[in-house]
Design brief:
single chain, about 325 residues, six-stranded mixed β-sheet, elongated
């Protein structure tokens, strides 16, 4: 196993928060039970495209609730991501007091009126769609009615011949397309309420009626949390993307580009300064082999006495020449 030491150096940072957010409202992060969530798709798009904050979708899709392959809003943020947004002036943490209380009568009335309005719109749209279908099929419907009329008339004439009764006066088929359309419209039934389409909201429909209250964000508190936040901020300022690295035994996964398009190239685990050299609290062999198996570099990160970030990277090294020598000796034996 080969060990490399890389000390922190100053890097050119991207645009300042004031330049990035000029004329752009701050991203609203809703805090619930100590976790930050983003509900507005416009904010999510802004985080992904402009701020390199990835998060992870945590919501269930209304039409496909019993699966976990594809998720939707809200976007769940890492604690370090929320801290970064606040420190850079890119976001703000809020809570809604109405979400802690029972719904007021005003909110109930707004909800009921919205649901009734939605049903009326769907009922009218369904009726218009059915009328359009009738108009397109009016010619075929008319032809079908003409055939039925002639078949009925022929049956009556055949019956009269068999019974040897004098023939009645033959009626002419006079139905028109306009009359067919009118008949079909009269037969239309309104859309049953239980068949209405369920609206899929991409944003809280009553958000404008709720009271947003600024709230404090207590993270980071412990020394380990402070190290993680500092490391996250340092890597972010280098133009990198970061996500949670818990699946690979680390704190963060590091990407050189958009994680939706690129694979991670490093696994970062944050430790105290006295654990950096010895790797105390971390099985370096296991961690490095996991990184090598997934084509990544394992990195330990900490803060020195001056608060600067220090990185140690580890690569799994195979002595291929020694293995080849052992194989040749075996052949000679």
């Amino acid at each position: 196993m080969e060990q490399k030491h890389t000390n922190h150096k100053g890097h050119e940072t991207p645009k300042t928060s004031s330049e990035v957010t000029h004329g752009t409202p701050k991203v609203q992060v809703t805090v619930n039970h100590g976790q930050g969530y983003v509900w507005d798709p416009r904010d999510v798009w802004q985080l992904w495209r402009e701020y390199r904050v990835v998060g992870s979708l945590a919501g269930t899709l209304p039409r496909h609730p019993h699966q976990s392959n594809t998720l939707g809003l809200p976007l769940k943020l890492l604690h370090e991501e929320v801290t970064l947004l606040l420190e850079e002036g890119l976001g703000e943490t809020v809570q809604y007091k109405e979400m802690k209380e029972r719904p007021s009568q005003m909110l109930k009335d707004i909800f009921n009126n919205h649901r009734d309005s939605c049903y009326r719109e769907q009922k009218e749209a369904a009726a218009r769609q059915r009328i359009d279908q009738v108009k397109k099929m009016a010619g075929k419907i008319l032809e079908g009615k003409r055939k039925k009329f002639l078949m009925k008339q022929n049956k009556e004439q055949s019956k009269e011949v068999k019974q040897d009764t004098p023939g009645s006066k033959t009626e002419a088929f006079t139905l028109t397309i306009e009359e067919v359309i009118k008949e079909e419209e009269e037969k239309l039934q309104p859309l049953p309420p239980q068949h209405q389409v369920v609206e899929v909201f991409t944003r809280h429909p009553l958000l404008n009626h709720l009271t947003a209250e600024p709230c404090t964000w207590p993270y980071p508190i412990t020394q380990h949390e402070k190290i993680k936040s500092k490391v996250f901020s340092d890597l972010w300022h280098q133009g990198l993307y970061l996500t949670s690295g818990i699946k690979f035994g680390g704190d963060f996964l590091v990407y050189s580009g958009n994680p939706h398009l690129y694979h991670a190239h490093a696994i970062v685990r944050c430790v105290a300064e006295n654990q950096m050299e010895s790797g105390e609290g971390c099985d370096l062999v296991a961690a490095t082999r996991v990184a090598a198996a997934t084509k990544k570099t394992f990195v330990l990160a900490t803060l020195d006495h001056s608060g600067q970030v220090i990185y140690h990277s580890y690569h799994w090294y195979e002595d291929h020449e020694q293995e080849e020598g052992m194989e040749s000796d075996g052949e000679e034996l």
